[in-house]
Amino acid sequence: MFVFLIVTTMLAIRQAEWDGDMEPARVDRPEPVFGEVLVRVAAAGVNPVDVYTRRGLAYNRVLELPFVNGWDVAGVVEEAGYGATRFEVGDRVFGMPWFPRAAGAYAEYVTAPARHFARMPDEIGFAEAAALPLAGLTAWQMLTEVADVAAGQRVVVVGAAGGVGHLAVQIAKARGAHVIGSASEEKRAFVRGLGADEIVGHDEVPGIDGADVVIQMFGGEAGLTALECLRPGGILVSGQAAWTPGLYERAAELGVRARGYLVDPDGAGLEALAGLVRAGSLKVHVDRTFPLEDAAEAHRLVARGRTTGKVVLMVEEELR
């Protein structure tokens, strides 16, 4: 006699109040609807936006308590809803589903539209794949869709050793740009290894001459002073425009452009990133991994702002 056990719950890291504790909990396992896939999560990336969201400083307006944090995921397709023909059960995929609405990546399973994912490159494992989507799509969309970076242009990447920054350096180089990265003294060798043509200190960015594009992930005064290195008509693309008062007014005074930016889920962009990985033009650096249950400790590390590359939660032991 056979007994079939139907799994209806899963382990997740749940938060019940803003700026509160994240705790392991059993929650209902999601089910895919039309056009969606159910992904068994092997690893989940941790981003600064996850920390801001936990504190109630970012996208709490589109999230409801209690919620499961996280957007970056890599794993295996477990089930496909009706009409979802993009993947087969068993395919290894990675993605950044639903952003900025809740994806619930700090969990054993997620569901999302199939086009929020792409097939993982065989050249990387789950940890690297989970580190790539949000930071990679941010860098890709900033450089290719907003700034339209072309060969020969001078591109400044502020914070070139960070999650977005270290990928932006490589993507800009793959497009033939001359890349100037800012980094602290102890991270300059790392940025040089990414292919940056020049490296400067963060406080030296305003003194750079004639940049065509600036990729800026810091807000406040640093966002304003970074405008000073642009040539007339050059563009600064900021992931922190909402936290940089006066950005557009200062850009107009200097005769340059500034654009605020927020990343979108994008299967085609993920495929482009996967193509760069396969070609050997893009490598994802994972600074450190944590078990899923140690998500709070991972947040404390990311909140310090000193990581090189990305931090990742390892979720499913059997898939590692």
Describe the structure concisely.
The protein has 320 residues and is an alpha/beta fold. It is built from 9 helices and 16 strands.
Shape: globular
Radius of gyration: 20 Å
| SS-based class | alpha/beta
Taking all residues together, what is the mean pLDDT? 94
What fraction strand?
Answer: 25-35%
Architecture of the largest domain, CATH level 2? Alpha-Beta Complex
Put simply, the count of helices is: 9
**Terminal CA distance:** 33 Å
> Biggest β-sheet, characterized?
7 strands, mixed
The tally of beta strands, per DSSP, is 16
- Name the CATH class of the largest domain: Alpha Beta
CATH superfamily of the largest domain: Medium-chain alcohol dehydrogenases, catalytic domain
Q: Classify the fold: give the CATH topology of the largest domain.
A: Quinone Oxidoreductase, Chain A, domain 1
Residue stretches low in confidence (pLDDT < 50, at least 5 long) are: none
Percent helix, as a range, is 25-40%
Order of helices and strands: EEEHEEEEEHHEHEHEEHEHEHEHE
What is the number of domains? 2
